[in-house]
Design brief:
Elements (H helix, E strand, L loop, with lengths): L6 H9 L19 H16 L7 H12 L8 H10 L4 H25 L1 H11 L3 H14 L1 H9 L4 H10 L4 H26 L1 H31 L1
Amino acid sequence: MLLPAPRAKWELFMTQDVPDAVVPSAGESPAQATPAASRRIHRRLYDWVLHWAETPYALPALFILSFAESSFFPIPPDVLLIALVMGARTRWFRYAAVCTVASALGGILGYAIGYGLMESIGQRIIAFYQAEEYYARVMDWYSRYDYWIVFIAALTPIPYKVFTIASGAFHMNLLGFTLVSIVGRGTRFFAVAALLYVFGPPMKRLIDKYFDLLCIVFVLLLIGGFAVIKLF
């Protein structure tokens, strides 16, 4: 359960006037709303997550956000991680460690959902994000790439929650899944925090603008490196 936001900000979030055209109907997920509605909802969640950096509950919020994002919550913890590191750069290691541990634990929750609660909960999460077709592809990738696909999902902007749930449904070895999650998520969070610590505001602007591209380039370089090793 997420920590309660300060009353004034939470009430503003919930009661702000929004045109009917961009409000999803009852029972409709953000993914099913119009593009404008989806962006509006996503932006509100983004701002709500970000405001925790200004409260005394920033570190618990970072833990809970990192945990929840691995199984059902849509906003990645990088949003809050970046804000916290920029506010206290000497604590970059602590923040990255919290993100990594919480995200790996949240991944185990996603695994448990896929392993034993796929029909009752897992399918609903997949349907909420309208990721049924994507989930079918993920299952095919598992049969081909095994742990590597989990590592790539843990490192990149690919929706990690779909992969944690699929890992359980696919009955992947839990220890191997956990280790790969720790390495993948740790690489991502420590890289972001370390770059912000070393380079400060210029790096924040670069990450904000090119985060997805940077992750993809890193993975391509990693895959290319292993391909070269195999040649020898």
